[in-house]
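Quick start: load a record and inspect it. Here is 3-oxo-tetronate kinase:
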Amino acid sequence: MPDTPTKANVTWLGVIADDYTGASDVAGTLVSAGMRVVQTFGIPDASMQLHDVDCIVISLKTRSVPAAEAVEQSLAAARALKSRGVQQLYFKYCSTFDSTPEGNIGPVADALREEFVPAGMITVVAPGTPALRRTVYNGVLFAGTDLLQESSMRHHPLTPMTDSNVPRLLQAQSSNPVGHIGYGAIEAGVSAVRSELDTLGSQGAGYAVVDTLNDRHLAVLGAALLDHPLVTGGSGLVGGLAATRRFRGQPDPAHAARPSGPAAVVAGSCSEMTNAQIRAFREVYPCFLVDPVAIAEGRDVVAEALMFAKENLPGGPILIHSSASPEEVLKAQTHLGKDRAAEITEGSLSAIAEGLVGLGCRQLIVAGGETSGAVVRRLGITTARVGKEVTPGVPWLKTETDTELSILLKSGNLGDPRLFLHAWDHGRMGPRPMTGMG
Ligand SMILES: Nc1ncnc2c1ncn2[C@@H]1O[C@H](COP(=O)(O)OP(=O)(O)O)[C@@H](O)[C@H]1O
Ligand SMILES: O=C(O)[C@@H](O)C(=O)COP(=O)(O)O
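Running the structure step on this input writes:
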């Protein structure tokens, strides 16, 4: 069967993800497509053994850093992946295109193109991820039924999204002309997509934003992009690319690894879904609020949170959060400045996470991309085997550390409101449910 290769020691895909939860999302999608995946946090050392994997996902924390830093780290990650022989590079950003007019999606994509894409070849831009209810129609990004600019993403603490037009958003960040391929060409199939890509490329475009309304569109795109050295997008198109590989082989033993033991959530995400998940959890289990303003005023909130944890961890899952409403976040940012508020919050939550592991926590959910970056770094985790998704984009990870720690990095808006109640001791699951931001 020529189109059904058996698993070989070839790592076909190398992903550079701009935040840690986004990396988990893409890694979970690949596992659901039957791939063996290793997720690294930061760039893996050349000496790090990464055998028997189909895909390597490198998690970076580059979504909100200055553009030059994001470029430098992303290039270093791409070089590390190429030196391990990966066949195709994928730059993963958020399905809601989280960025500012300065970047970082455009500058990073430009730099990757310059080094890894032959002159004249166009690069696809596909944030749409229908499994998460993010779709692109005529170049316009929707979150559920809302225009991106009218969704809760307009209140994001670091990258508020106030425009929904993807070509316009990207053009503000890149000097390469940005074109668009509508869903009509994608419905027409692989040859029509290839011909549109060639036409746009010959007209001088560097990028083609593609409409993506459903998984069928992603499968067509995946097949059309097999020989592209660089693809960019959300986790959706990764599923399309993986579908074209159709490996058959042994499931990754990490799938069978069940998280177990004392359980806690640490949340720094202020997204609408995370706030809803906290409200649902609070009705059943104890919660502790971390207030960045109180910390700045000198209160030892970390010690208080760990005292709370010591009393409550033996009784069931607990939750410690700085997550707050848009009004409360604005108040803290006005008082402390946006960067300082984030720095204080991320620093405290990561110290609390470290304390929780010290107290015996063995199943840890971290909510928020930036927050996950800070926590994983503080815990010194460098790699993890990716297990099954609890819900689309949200897999448990088995960390490769001395402590038997399972960690779940939850993107701000992913999951349903009861996720923090049902994610524990996650074992076998049925078919992928369709959930995400409304
Ligand atoms: N109460 C708060 N006030 C101000 N900023 C906060 C507060 N709580 C969290 N933050 C910051 O908001 C940002 C949320 O981003 P992130 O963790 O990526 O969440 P998401 O995945 O929802 O985008 C982080 O930098 C976090 O430190
Ligand atoms: O594409 C997505 O929606 C996610 O993979 C993602 O990147 C979310 O980022 P955060 O909301 O910052 O966790």
